[in-house]
Amino acid sequence: MSIFAQLTPPVLPEGTARLRAELREFLAESRRALGWTPNSNFIGVFSAEFSRLLGARGYLGVTWPKEYGGQASSALDRYIVTEELLAAGAPCAAHWVADRQSGPLLLRFGSEAQRRDLLPGIARGECYFSIGMSEPDAGSDLAAVRTRATRTPRGWRIDGAKVWTSNAHVNHYAITLCRTGPAGDSRHEGLSQFLIDLKTDSVRINPILNLLGDHEFNEMVFDGVEIPADRLIGKEGDGWTQVRSELAFERSGPERFFGTFHLLTSTVEAARARGDKAAERALGRLIVHFLSLRSLSLAVAGVLQAGGDPGVAAALVKDMGARFELDVLEVARDLMPDAATTPDDPLGRAILQVPSYALRGGTPEIMRSIIARELGLR
Ligand SMILES: Cc1cc2nc3c(=O)[nH]c(=O)nc-3n(C[C@H](O)[C@H](O)[C@H](O)COP(=O)(O)OP(=O)(O)OC[C@H]3O[C@@H](n4cnc5c(N)ncnc54)[C@H](O)[C@@H]3O)c2cc1C
Q1: Buried b / exposed e across 171-187, counting CB within 10 Å, b at 16+?
Q2: Contact 51 CB / ligand 1 (< 6 Å)
Q3: Domains in the chain, ordered, with CATH?
Q4: Which residue of 65, 200, 297, 319 pairs with 367 in a disulfide if CB–CB is 3.0 to 4.6 A?
């Protein structure tokens, strides 16, 4: 089927409105109870309390089978949950990666023991994961990873370093891509994924502060880290295929265009308060753009729901979403020239943070190169 035929947004199932209403009530309650303030960066605020509450209400592992702690509901229900969390600016850093991509990866490629050990904890909002892909010389060019896993009598020995690992200092596990054999002509052979226990394996975790001075990133150093054999995920040498499936989950969700949602709504409110008719055209254009991105991302959720591979469509959401977030920032700066821009003010935080959103999960140049290849343009 052509990419264009796949991209028809599905009709939301019956029950969506009720789910949305329940979520909004839950979010208001949890905000009163835990006192969180809205933040558009989905991995910006770590709250184990919030993630546990979310898990207890059945809003994590939404699509997973019940035997692993999931709800056996649809990808579209999960989409609604994700969208409401983002619109509220809820503190999602603890569970986000585990629920979005590590759990689905384990469900698809993990051993039965790994699924039984890890998925129920993720669904309860108690077990958190990091992504161990990037290295100093292997970001966009992921096949260039040099972190090596070597077989030992007991299992594996890992040597190397990962960088930009979000929340490795607070999470429990990192799914880490390593070289285990020759790269072959494609350079995609000989890669494998491993489950690294960040609390008990002897990984050194060094903080890296972002432009705001916040500790979100880390360097993970593996200096002869010994792990047991059962930490291999999937098949030895299949890491490239596995990592690609993980990236489809990472790139296509609504978080790819919600990063400036609260800046957009506050700019609309400011323009309304000033009775600024001239601002309406610029804001209207942004809102229409937002709605069309939402249709595209919803269409991707529909493809996932039908068991398809959203490949190029996920890259489109990621690239166009990143461009949209920067457009919101530019319009907000134009329309609120007097707004304070220190790192303590919302606009100042956005100025320092939003450009980095385009990089995580794959840069614009890389997304466009994937799109061009899939469309047969190169
Ligand atoms: C907020 C944030 C959170 C992150 N969290 C994680 C995480 O948890 N785990 C993790 O593993 N990584 C994480 N990353 C890293 C992220 O995935 C990488 O930054 C990204 O893949 C780009 O890699 P790089 O930084 O090495 O840049 P490089 O690959 O060095 O790219 C530098 C520039 O060159 C361009 N470029 C590179 N190759 C090409 C090419 N072939 N054609 C055209 N242009 C090219 C790129 O587009 C970019 O503009 C995070 C990054 C950010 C900003």
Answers
A1: bbbbbbbbbbeeeeeee
A2: no
A3: 3-127 (1.10.540.10), 131-238 (2.40.110.10), 253-374 (1.20.140.10)
A4: 319
